[in-house]
Every structure is written in structure tokens, then in C-alpha cells.
Specification:
The protein is an alpha/beta fold. The chain has eight helices and seven strands, in the order E-H-E-H-E-E-H-E-H-E-H-H-H-E-H. The strands form two sheets. It has a five-stranded parallel sheet, with helices on both faces. Helix 1 runs parallel beside helix 8, helix 3 runs parallel beside helix 4 and helix 5 packs antiparallel against helix 6. It is globular and about 40 Å long.
């Protein structure tokens, strides 16, 4: 495994899972959030984000954790040896995001650029809206993409905590 994509809604443990898998398979790890956001939670211009993520996807070894634009994800999926789709129930994403928001009061996520403060009501409200949108708008698009013949055989779908733990502790086939 030289190229692994980890995708799924916010708060599903993608980053924790990605760190473990990147270490296990000795892959350089890229967090999409670290590309999409600049210091101070400013959003990087879309074309710059697209270029950077596609350049990483063109390299020989990587683990990319997160979303990005749909065309960039499809490019990544086409090049990936393995796709891990964290598809937990929506309530779990909300629960784990809430825990993450509280934790960010004391310790910002290390994968974000400096000065990115997620511990605000504004950011939390935005995050909750994104969780809903991803679940009901983007997730169905991903499910359609994951049914296509060149992609289908690469996907490992995680739908519950036991499956998440299995991949975290044991890797995947």
C-alpha cells in the first residue's frame, strides 16, 4: 500500500486512524484541513488547494486524510491503492465533534495551521451545519463514486466502532 485515502464526515476519527495507518505503512501523511486552511482559519483559494492536493496525489507515496473538492477527491480515489470510508452514524459524528470542540478550548488540533481557533460558537455552529450537509449531500455522492468498478474494489467502509477499532489496531486487507 503506497497510496491511501481516508475519507468521511467530520468527527469520525479520520485523523486518529490516519496517523496510525500512516505509521503502520510508513506513508507521509497529509491532512486536507492543513492545506485548505491558512493561519487564523483563513480559507486558502480553491485553485491553490486543488493544485496542492493534486500534486500530492501524483506523488508515489501518501496517505491523504480528508475531503477537498469533489474533482480532487475523484482524482485521489483513482490513484489510491486503498480508500477507507469512515461512514459512522450521524449521531456519532456529532458526538465526537462536540468532544473535539470542547477539547480544542485547551489544545487546538495539531493538524491545523497556527492561529486556527475552532473553540468558538461561530465555528461550532458552522461545523454542525457541515456535518449535516456532508451526511445528506456529499455522502450520497461518495457512495455513488464508490460503486464504480475501478474504485469499488479499493474501498473499506467503516460503519461502527468495532470496525473502526479493527482497522486502527490491525490494519486492513
Amino acid at each position: 500500500m503506497n497510496r491511501i485515502a481516508v475519507i468521511g464526515n467530520g468527527g469520525g476519527g479520520k485523523t486518529t486512524l490516519s496517523r496510525a495507518i500512516a505509521e503502520r505503512y510508513n506513508l507521509p501523511l497529509t491532512h486536507v484541513d492543513s492545506i485548505q486552511y491558512l493561519a487564523g482559519m483563513k480559507v486558502r483559494p480553491t485553485d491553490e488547494t486543488r493544485t496542492i492536493l493534486n500534486e500530492i496525489a501524483n506523488s508515489p507515496k501518501w496517505l491523504i486524510d480528508g475531503f477537498g473538492l469533489i474533482d480532487v477527491m475523484e482524482n485521489r480515489f483513482g490513484k489510491a491503492d486503498k480508500i477507507i470510508f469512515v461512514d459512522l452514524p450521524l449521531w456519532r459524528h456529532y458526538w465526537w465533534c462536540t468532544k473535539r470542540q470542547v477539547q480544542s478550548i485547551w489544545a487546538p488540533r495539531s493538524e491545523l495551521p497556527d492561529g486556527c481557533n475552532e473553540a468558538t460558537i461561530t465555528h461550532t455552529t458552522r461545523l454542525y451545519k457541515i456535518l449535516w450537509k456532508v451526511h445528506f449531500k456529499i455522502r450520497p455522492q461518495l457512495q455513488t463514486i464508490f460503486k464504480t468498478p475501478p474504485i469499488k474494489s479499493k474501498v473499506t467502509r467503516i460503519t461502527n466502532l468495532d470496525e473502526w477499532n479493527s482497522v486502527f489496531y490491525n490494519g486492513f486487507q
